[in-house]
# Entry
Amino acid sequence: DISIIQIRKYLQNTVELNETRSFLEINQVSMMSLQTLLGQNHGNVLIIDCRPFSQYEANHVMCDCIVNVFPKSSNLEFTDLNFESLVSNCSSTKEALILENITTYKNIVICTNSSTSTQSVSIFVILTKYFISNNLPIPNIQSCQMDFDKWKNKGGEVYHKKMNSNNPFLIPSNYNTDIIVGLENEYNSCYINCILQCLIEIKDLTTILLSNSFLGQINYMDTSNSKGSIITTLAELEQKMLKTYINNSVFNQRKSSSCFELKKCCGLINPMFNSNKEEDCIEFCNFLINHIHDDLHKGANSGLQVGLPTETQLKRLSFQDQADTVWNSYLSQENNIIVDIFQGQMASILQCQYCLNQSNTFQVFSTVSLMLPQHHTCNIHDCLKQFYKPDMLTGNNEWECTNCKQKRPSIQRLEITKFPKVLIIQLNRFSNYMIKNTCFVKYPYELDLSSYHHNTNNPLKYELFGVVCHTGTMERGHYSSYVKKQNNIWWHFDDTVYRPVHFGNEFISQDAYILFYKLIE
# Structure
């Protein structure tokens, strides 16, 4: 451990310290001086901005080498923190990497929005302890109180959340821009490209990725997730795609983007995506959605957690009340933007045919897999009816009834009790026998699911906006996608090649594998 006394002794040859004046009081710079410092020492200045996320999101300095550290409380206690925890509280993985390379900077400025030096001193102590413990010379560490009005008056750039910035990476909340860019097929990445082209059209998700407003929601403390690396890499990819699209429009060119960094990032967690093999796009889609969910903070905004009732308590409720109770309990612990967009709830219902006792098990889902008939053609409602069709459990498959206390012939069926805003449907063409089902599933542009919903009085309609197609066989196949852009024009994306559809309903394809529907609200 390195004490304050040791730090003072270490610094006494550099600056005159006494009992009444702190190091940071002597080395405090104004906003104007900070601008001058940035101009004279470009690349050698690191700004550490320590403010709550709400303040950072509303107003922050535009600067390449700035790291935002989110304090857990209004007053940072340096005794409870070390350099590693400072890194873990950074607003993004990219900024955490910058802070980890702090030894490459000759000038460090600690910025807060408070006239008090509590937070500045806390970070100063953390940094000096880090340099001393690693036997490194301490750089020029200064402090600065953030005054954005003065910064702007002197010509500095400041981003306001509500300002319509010309910077394509700082998109306002009313973002309404198409991104029409091809993606390179690197190491058989077409199974990734097709999913990304569809996800880009989910406005709620793309808006937070382009504006970086998700940064304050990353859970860096959970060691079981990617600590924001996947969602940050995905955001950087979409930002590059938007920039490429804008440049292509301005310079009349057709440059493409690459998902290789995202593929590599996902491959660090699941080696399946780190190979040159063609993988199943639905597996990648589920992986991406689930890991972004894991990376973000969970829980209801109210901060109240609703405990799950016991099985006995649930049985006293009606079926829909059971579903609502379980869903609300889940939301109190797991709620974030991924839940809001992609997740729904499904019930597995078992009923004893002897005493009619019923057991309901509820689970969360992000995709629905529909089995296809062995026909030349069918309608998607035929597949949905098969999905909802009850199965009779007899013989060795009988259910051990909790009421009868013995195995009984039973009926098992599935029911969707909570439909998501974005419904992702897999037309399951691949069997365990390595044979592809080529049935032409006819699916509508507008899908009415009202009859499958418990509340038939309220319409439940979805609008198609993305179709992933698979051509070829299981051994040698290829993915492409159809995507409806915000100008209501459908485009076909085949890696780097993209074009508007040749005819009106070209997106109704015999090769359709994944369907993306959004709820009509």
About this structure: The first helix runs from residue 4 to 11. Residues 184 and 258 are 5 Å apart (CA to CA). The first strand starts at residue 45 and ends at 50. Confidence is low (pLDDT under 50) at residues 15-21, 73-79, 152-175, 300-304.
